[in-house]
Amino acid sequence: MADAWEVIGRALDVVRQETIGLGLSGARVLRMVDAQGVPVAVVKVVDHRMSHLVSELEAETARLAWLRRLGIPVPEVLGSGVDEGESWLAMRALPGCPASDQWPAGERDRVVDLLAHAARELHATSWEDTPFDRSLSSVLVEVRERVASGLVDRSWVIAGKEGPPAAVVLEELESLAGELGDGTPVVSHGDFCLPNVLIDETGAAGFVDVGRAGLADPHSDLADMTRSLRSHMNPQYGEASARRFLDTYGRDGIDPERLRLHDLLESFFWPVPEAHAPGG
After folding, report:
1. Which residues act catalytically here (predicted)?
2. What are phi and psi of 37, to 5 degrees?
3. pTM of the predicted model, to two decimals?
4. Domain with CATH 3.30.200.20 in the chain
5. Alpha-carbon gap, residue 234 to 257, rounded angstroms
6. Fold of 2-92
7. Which fold has domain 97-276?
């Protein structure tokens, strides 16, 4: 990390770095803070030997550039590289607090409404062409590869998931996908959960962790957020918040079967912790 500290830290008058505990990706995330205690940069670091994590870091770098060209509020890339066996990506810190923070009880409905409006605006973004196809048919190719490699079964075992193996569940997924089709493509976050949306003091939203962004069915983001709002990891929200999110987004055009499809799809992308990687 010496390269990132010297190149990025010195330019932004960084005086210390802090480890951020959010996220399940397997990446180490550092926050760089200036003398006034203001976060000025965020650095993601992965073991260079872990090819899937390096690929995810490279994917996020490319998507950040694309989303910024579309005018979407995502971090500016400050630099990237390989240092002492670690790949790193440094980004300018966005203002605001994660929606997953412990917002005062009286503000939580407002936060949910802001999330819904942010999703609507993101999905309404104009686009002409993109190299990032996240349509259902495209993602299913990746899902089949993950199942064949054993990565999905391994992630389910680690998470304590019970039930049939991934190859059997994949048959159900493909059957449902065949019935429903790809859907209408929009600009999609790809991992639209509470920790990945920052809300500033004006109510403006910014997006982080966009390594799976691309053109996709909007139900992908909607399923992600409703699942996040219902999660035991965010007990300050719950079922009522999930319903409010969908109501505020607009129930017209929301298909419950498509939400179920994308909930099922997400389970094929559960992370495998770093300690379980080969050589880890």
Report:
1. 191
2. 80, 15
3. 0.91
4. 2-92
5. 24
6. Phosphorylase Kinase; domain 1 (3.30.200)
7. Aminoglycoside 3'-phosphotransferase; Chain: A, domain 2 (3.90.1200)
